Protein: EGF-like domain-containing protein
Amino acid sequence: MVFISLFCLCCVFFLALHHSFTLFASGRGKVIGRKWADAKNAKEVLALVQAEGWASSVVHAKADQKHVNAPCFYQGNCSLHGENLLGRCFCFPGWTGEQCEVDERQSTPVCTNRGDTCFYTDEAGVFAISLERWHVAQEAELVTWDNWDPVASGGDRINDHLLGFDLYREVGEIGANLGNFLEVGCGPWTQSVTMMKTRAFDVEKYVLLEPGALNYAANTKDTVYASGQIDGFDGKTVVVNAGGEHLDLFLEVFDTIMMVNVLEHTNNAISILRGLYNALKPGGLLIMNERWLDTFDPPEELDLNALYHPIRMKQTVFDHFISVGFDIIRDCRTAECHNADIVKNYGTSTYFIGRKKESCA
Ligand SMILES: C[S@@+](CC[C@H](N)C(=O)[O-])C[C@H]1O[C@@H](n2cnc3c(N)ncnc32)[C@H](O)[C@@H]1O
Ligand SMILES: *[C@@H]1O[C@H](CO)[C@@H](O)[C@H](O)[C@H]1NC(C)=O
Structure:
């Protein structure tokens, strides 16, 4: 059993992982985001949300927002009032300036009982929320999957993503070895297992970073890593029960990273993008799908889309990220890489494959 809860980990393990991927087995840990652990199903969680609304408060930035081996990027912490993404500060609401040093909070935007207005910024949309707010969304997410039937659905939109990534052809030749591989926010069924099978890829290490992992393994049907290993990758699988905001545990260790339909569910999307960049080796490959929300309507009624998707980030953030940090291999945002139902119900998203630039100069 190679389940790793962040709460069970010690620094020794992290250091080991940086250098050699030594594994550390542990038992079940506490699962993040079980605020309403007594609720039995999605309906009950929704009823609780309806009754209580969602709490919101301050967003916290990390002091260490450095970019490893990238001296040409701004290395500071955006005065702790924003997030540094490859040299540019995206400021939290009410802050402005190159390094978010200017306080303009005269009229602090408010969050309503069920709206996220206090987290909204004109520049980047909602890119970071409070931990409490994330817990509410995450709770709804987990109970939804616990009640899901993957046999009927084949996982979470697997076929949509096969289409969007053109069967993952540009990731590598059939049978290629993807090296140290990470999937972030992989859910119970992952997208990477399908990719590996479709292209007969091999890996050195197969790491999953998912804050709901322990819950999925215990409660969700047909979770592909329920035994702690992925079928066909025994001895190579490592499952880490933590959010992508903890990516800073990994510095330039992965050859390939995948993340599909995750950012809009997270606590701090820009810190995750920064973490992805730092976790990749120079020349490493990023495989990513997300949608961007350039409009933001504060909901007046309980808005399920907003409940499940607290982050609603603008495309300009991603454009900055890939243009500065990556050599682009695939960037498809049009109807041609989406099925018609998805376009109708959710709009289009970005199917991106890129190689981290060797240097940023
Ligand atoms: C819509 S599901 C997609 C799952 C998977 N990527 C797939 O496509 O099958 C979103 C996933 O993001 C995870 N998630 C939520 N917050 C996260 C965070 N801060 N970091 C990483 N993953 C997160 C959720 O637990 C959930 O499993
Ligand atoms: C981060 O920001 C704080 C507050 O502005 C400042 O005191 C600190 O020196 C900064 N640290 C770094 C590494 O830039």
